Amino acid sequence: MTQVAVTGGAGFIGSNLVAKLVSKGHSVTVVDDLSTGMISNIDTKVCDFQHLSLVDAFALKKALSKAEVIFHLGARGSVPRSLKNPVATHDVNATGTLNVLEAARETGAHVFFSSSSSVYGRNGALPKDESMWLGPMTPYAASKLAAEGYVQAYGSAYAVPVTLLRFFNVFGPKQRPDHEYAAVLPKWIWKAMHNEPIEVFGDGTQTRDFTYIKTVLDICTDGMDRKVTHDGAINLAYGNRISLNTTIELLKKHFPDLQVKYVETRAGDVKDSQNSPGLLKSLFPDIVPTDFENALSETVEWLREFGETVAHGPTVSD
Ligand SMILES: NC(=O)c1ccc[n+]([C@@H]2O[C@H](COP(=O)([O-])OP(=O)(O)OC[C@H]3O[C@@H](n4cnc5c(N)ncnc54)[C@H](O)[C@@H]3O)[C@@H](O)[C@H]2O)c1
Questions:
Q1: I need a surface site. Which of 9, 35, 72, 299 has the fewest CB within 10 A?
Q2: 3-state secondary structure labels for all residues of the chain
Q3: 105-154: per-residue pLDDT in tens?
Q4: Is the CB of 32 inside a 6 Å radius of any atom of ligand 1?
Q5: Which CATH superfamily is domain 3-170+210-236 in?
Q6: Is the CB of 73 under 6 A from ligand 1?
């Protein structure tokens, strides 16, 4: 049994990870301010829930004091949200990460950090590999890159064991479908379930390397079990380049009457995204990713059965 802390553990990825860690017999502390996450996502009888903000360095250090492993997933997500309030995004995502690292510097905990493919931004080359130049286009991406810098610096300067993962469009059960900044797949499925038209920003030819939540969890727990560390960033996606229009065709298998409305491109959105998974596969050779069409079907089924449990979370509009 390992003492594990999960920041952002009441959110989409975090709460799925907490459930998996608990089921594997680990002792889990969840740190979350419930700004986008929901307490109903976690079973507080089987984990220690600490309701606090990453910007409260003192309280955070105390909450993380026993952790041998920290999955740092807490963040102010969403690109449009960062465009509205860049300073708040920096405070949580960059300074909050520094606060996590300060806690780990004292304890020697292994820190897994969730960065984002958005750090590539203006670099349009495809597929992306970790040696390419980075060009954040939004405050969200800049805050993640700043945090990446601190993660690497603490690895080098203080020998904190670190694993820096860049997530690409993760989706699956427990992802909130209904707020202003909801991710595209749960938002579309939710609209389709309620017979409302889905909105596509642009012409739908933009592509994404969607990653199913189960694959992300497998990487996280495998990395923890084998103590995988790495000096630089690791892109977490398997190189599937799927256009939004193809995704719509797949959704029509579940919702034959799906109505689609094409609207203007949204500021800050990257046109194409695809990873070159060489490094990921070499570091995590045993992980087999879930195929996109099956993952999409599982997500549709989950939202049909349990969507109401994540549909009425805190308002996210600032
Ligand atoms: N979902 C994706 O496709 C994706 C892609 C790239 C990177 N990421 C990163 O992965 C991580 C998890 O993302 P998610 O999709 O689960 O998002 P999420 O919004 O569901 O989870 C983030 C959690 O962090 C919490 N949080 C926010 N600000 C906080 C603060 N100041 N103090 C403590 N807790 C705070 C929220 O309440 C929420 O529970 C984030 O760091 C995100 O930037 C996600």
A1: 35
A2: CCEEEEECCCCHHHHHHHHHHHHCCCEEEEEECCCCCCHHHCCCCCCEEEECCCCCHHHHHHHCCCCCEEEECCCCCCHHHHHHCHHHHHHHHHHHHHHHHHHHHHHCCEEEEEEEHHHHCCCCCCCECCCCCCCCCCHHHHHHHHHHHHHHHHHHHHCCCEEEEEECCEECCCCCCCCCCCCHHHHHHHHHHCCCCEEEECCCCCEECCEEHHHHHHHHHHHHHCCCCCCCEEEECCCCCEEHHHHHHHHHHHCCCCCEEEECCCCCCCCCCCECCHHHHHHCCCCCCCCHHHHHHHHHHHHHHHCHHHHCCCCCCC
A3: 999 999 999 999 999 999 999 999 999 999 999 999 999 999 999 999 99
A4: yes
A5: NAD(P)-binding Rossmann-like Domain (3.40.50.720)
A6: yes
